[in-house]
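Supplementary Note 3. Input sequence used for the single-chain structure prediction.
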Amino acid sequence: MGKIVAIGGGENGHGETIYETGPFDREIVALTGKKRPNFLFIGLANDFPDEYYQVMKNIYKDIYDCKTDYLTLNDIVSFDTVNAKIQKADIIYVGGGNTSKLIELCHKHDITELLRDAYENTDKVLCGVSAGAICWCRYGDSVDDDTKEVFKVNGFGFLDILICPHSNRESFRLEPLEEMMKETEVPAIAMDNAAIEVVGNEFRVLRLEKGSSCKKCYWKDGKYITKELLYDEFVDIEKLYIMD
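The predicted structure, written as discrete structure tokens, is reproduced below.
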């Protein structure tokens, strides 16, 4: 059970950006163990899910030869349609955007429990970037689109961590993170150009060549502790959760 790749930053080549996330995408495909896996994209956190899907299709279909599909806004009102697409998928990739919006829609349309079953009872690869990384965890930090206030949000809770993505490129998130961790019972993982890869009861850190950072953050004995996670080989997942 349990394959998750939670990506904390890196560009996927949309707009004028350079495609950076190839190492993560290759690992996601390899984790399926299939020559031509079924890729399902969930862009519900984004205001433009159709356009976002085209970006991901360009990667997973054109580069990695996956069979691609996505959940449209019309799809999610039909439980049977969502269930069928999730059952068919080998890879379920959640895109970035507004985490609160994503979680609300998943709860409203009973998608959360379908994803939980996929995590607990199948070997599907659950993955995503930014909001699509946060969603698999107990908590994440999120940025208000209007006020730019940073606040804590709930995820699905599959992993007992808080994820703070884009921690280098959006360093304004780090001060609010330190404050919110005073009342958070699990560690935070602040990362950029890095990903947490979980397979069963083990995890490791994947990194891009440039700008990679993956730090565990928590309070202990009145001190705020940040330490780089250096596990590039799989280790027991308790090493991700422990605050020592």
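The chain has a mean pLDDT of 95. The chain has one domain: 3-241.
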